[in-house]
Specification:
Blueprint: H1 8-46, H2 53-78, H3 82-101, H4 110-127, H5 130-142
Helix pairs in contact: 1-2, 1-4, 2-3, 3-4
Length: 144
């Protein structure tokens, strides 16, 4: 028996899938963090710690919606959908803005800023990697 060498295309596809999976996992962790903060705000609303019930309820709804949206970005990115790459870039840009604001001012927390920057750079580096860009170009050229 002879061993068949994997084709270059299947190796490239496997590496692309691994890259997208790693990126999706980080995005899912970000979604979990946003959801956890939404749950924290919900607890404050339920336990009566909020000063404005309407404002707190609105914030809870926004955080839950953002967590669901970011989790869906991870699912779509894992499936290789082109639009998910754009959404991931938008989300990482939002995180970088929040990170830039977390180093100074009232309530500054350097750990949060560094974690946001690290996860954003990781995702952006993967989304703009050569394999992902080539896959996007191939999809555009093939009309998918």
């Amino acid at each position: 028996m002879t061993q068949q060498q994997p084709s270059k295309q299947s190796v490239t596809d496997a590496k692309l899938a691994a890259t997208l999976t790693r990126t999706a996992v980080v995005i899912w962790l970000e979604a979990a963090a946003v959801g956890a903060f939404g749950a924290f705000l919900l607890w404050g609303l339920v336990s009566g710690q909020s000063k404005s019930v309407a404002a707190e309820a609105t914030l809870v709804a926004l955080y839950v919606a953002a967590a669901v949206w970011v989790a869906y970005i991870g699912v779509a990115l894992r499936q290789g959908k082109r639009w998910a790459r754009s959404a991931a870039v938008f989300w990482q840009t939002c995180q970088l803005f929040i990170a830039s604001q977390s180093f100074s001012g009232r309530g500054a927390n350097n750990v949060i800023g560094v974690l946001l920057i690290a996860s954003s750079v990781f995702v952006l580096a993967h989304v703009f990697s050569r394999r992902v860009i080539q896959s996007s170009r191939g999809e555009i050229e093939s009309g998918n």
